[in-house]
Amino acid sequence: MHKILTYNNISATSLDRLPNNQYEVSSEIQYPDAILLRSFNLHGIPIPGSVKCVGRAGVGVDNIPVSEFSKRGIPVFNAPGANANAVKELTLAGLLLAARHISPALDFVRTLRGDDQAINQAVEKGKKQFAGFELAGKTLGVIGLGAIGVKVANAALGLGMKVMGFDPSLTVQSAWQLSSQVAQASSVDDLLTKSDFVTLHVPLVEQTHHFINSARIGLMKNTAVLLNFSRGGVVEAAAVLDALEEGKLRAYVCDFPDSALLNRKGVIALPHIGASTEEAEENCAVMVVDQIRDYLENGNIRNAVNFPDVVVPRTEGCRLGIANENIPGMVSQISSALADANLNIADLVNQSRGEYAYTLIDVNAEVPSATLERIRSIPGVLSARIIWAAAIAH
Q1: Which of 127, 289, 342, 394 has the fewest CB atoms inside 10 Å of its own CB, making it the most exposed?
Q2: Judging by DSSP bridges, how do beta strands 381-388 and 197-200 pair with one another?
Q3: Is 322 helix (H, G, I), strand (E, B) or coil?
Q4: CB-count burial class (<10 Å; 0-12, 13-18, 19+) for 160
Q5: Confidence label for 390 from pLDDT (cuts 50, 70 and 90)
Q6: pLDDT at 60
Q7: What dihedral do alpha carbons 393, 22, 61, 144 form, nearest 10°?
Q8: End-to-end CA distance of the chain
Q9: Rounded to whole angstroms, how far apart are CA atoms 203 and 155?
Q10: Which domains does the chain carry?
Q11: Statement: the pTM of the whole predicted model exceeds 0.85
């Protein structure tokens, strides 16, 4: 019986994917095999030694001490792309909010008083201050062409916009999904100088912190609109505010309000609702539940933020899942331990990602406890466990 500890309300549809005869799911489990959460902050929370993996029903993992889990050989799963449509739709709304001055127009309507005649007179007099412009024919620059960026780019074409994209790490999968009408920018600077709107869809990592700063804003058109539905830290807020104040930027639309941005002219800040739809929350939960189940039952890793993807078709027999530091000689030491136990390796897949690696090994017979302990004692091995096929599970 696998035990899963939950820290948030998780979609019932996703939890239904865990068979009752194989899984116990509760918010009060003491020694869980896995932790499933959304936005709960795990920093500073003691984690039992029984935990084998963590699943975040969302994309960002700021609320999880990933480094700590990595050192213990614990994969941290997330759900990239599961909320892509929700964020795409809000990005399109952001374009319209900025182009048509919808927010101040709504604020204006809330101030109206009097009878119908008085309101009509006030509307005819006041509406001129909210005159905007149309999106058709304008150029949208999309930085980051992952699951969300591709959807935004394709949808903008449907609105009659011209679209440029830039992503030096564009995957084959994203390339297949991206419309051929999206022009390729030669660089970020090239995209910034040519775009009427710039939208960001990149992760917040060391390389993208303050990715948009005063120097890059200086390359943009004075009439440009900047949209940030990635993470707040991708944009240097002080530089944006200076540009708005000096008339070097038309507007800034973001999903990450902070004290500096509140009530500032030209800023449209939303309360981090990019993925806040029923559909996105369910999609994220279903995706990460499936990944946790596949890891617990088969040892496969899909979409971990700290370990490589390793997916091996399952056959009957005994399987070893080993997380280790990415150092030379690891596979040979593990193989030697198995050979000394007279175990034949039927399949072996080893993949690395940065400092860490993960190995799946299928062998022809049960791995003795002494052999498992020998493997665990190899310097650099972070975790090792036996994963029996369901048909002959122990």
Answers
A1: 394
A2: unpaired
A3: strand
A4: exposed
A5: low
A6: 82
A7: 80
A8: 11
A9: 21
A10: 1-83+277-306 (3.40.50.720), 84-269 (3.40.50.720), 310-394 (3.30.70.260)
A11: no
